[in-house]
Amino acid sequence: MITPHLFIPGPTTIPDAVRIAMNLPMEDMRSPEFPKFTLPVFEDLKKVFKMKDGRVFIFPSSGTGAWESAIENTLAPGDKVLMSRFGQFSLLWVDMAERLGLKVELCDEEWGTGVPLEKYADILAKDKNHEIKAVFATHNETATGVSSDIAGVRKALDAAKHPALLFVDGVSSVGSLEMRMGEWGVDCCVSGSQKGFMLPTGLGILAVSQKALDVNKTVNGRMNRCFFSWEDMIKTNDLGYFPYTPATQLIRGLRASLDLILAEGIDNVVARHHRMASGVRAAVDAWGLKLCAKEPKWHSDTVSAIFVPEGIDANAVLKTAYYRYNTSLGTGLNKVAGKVFRIGHLGAVDEFMIGGVLFAVEMTLKDVGVNIKLGSGTGAAAEYFSKTATKSATSATPAQAKAA
Ligand SMILES: *Cc1c(COP(=O)(O)O)cnc(C)c1O
Asked: What is the pLDDT at residue 209?
């Protein structure tokens, strides 16, 4: 009767305002009124990415399509790129780069760590002839719950005075974690609709800097491209249209989700995610369990991958949570399959929801034989939330407080 409580790191829970905004009749995507709707969506997306120049593309695809678009529009087959691999998503991006014909200089890192800044700095400093055309960084590795320091990657590039483009996978970070494309000199930032943007899957969102747009015009021996071509997009997007049928309902939903994000304030959204994640981590600590992320500097504020104790099968945790407590948790992928379960805490989440998932996880862990005391994790999270509460206890917004 009650739909399963969704705590996987995407798709995430869709707020009512967003779902209602998508419940509308089909519309004419070539109507003279359509650009009045689309052009401000492009502008508002720039605010979420904190861009200082450039533009945002919206493809009817998933995030993987935006990965592909970034590569095909700026690089040529045989180009050398610097990448790192430390989880299922960074792994798939490397695989795509290789299949599209790039020569990948690869840093293979331990799962539970992130982008290796010192190695990047070293490799870039040694690349005197600037053979490396792009540097890739997965901002938030969703498989292991690891966030990486993108400002640090920019520093490594600047220290080496290296002109390579900077590509960032922000699929599970944009709209939830700090993303400062302009300040950090990010050239292509990849995102999708079903994580921080709180929408169904179906949009590949790609933010690109002016530098990347310039490279797109000049790249030698460029890659073939068609569906994901920036040139075709730009010609029609400038007028508020698309080169093929856009996912109008999803973009209507995106409008509503941008309204929610901008009304709360991006910095407040980021702070809320940090607070929710800290509550989850307080519970994990209290249970005596370990995160897959090896050090606090890698902690992700959008997803926690949690190791089950030796002798316990993480798949039993997932099944028990699902069938007994109607709660979907994230599965362990690839190298950590059976060893971790994940709690997604991104998008439309608050203390109540985090309390709910921790309650379900706690019972589940006890049921599958983990030696924990019921109330230990939920209690620690409650302690943290009540001690650090910042909202007024008498009004929802500062304006309401003033009016009262
Ligand atoms: C979800 C995710 C992807 C893949 O996005 P799709 O929308 O499933 O194509 C890529 N990278 C990261 C970090 C992700 O979390």
From this structure: 98
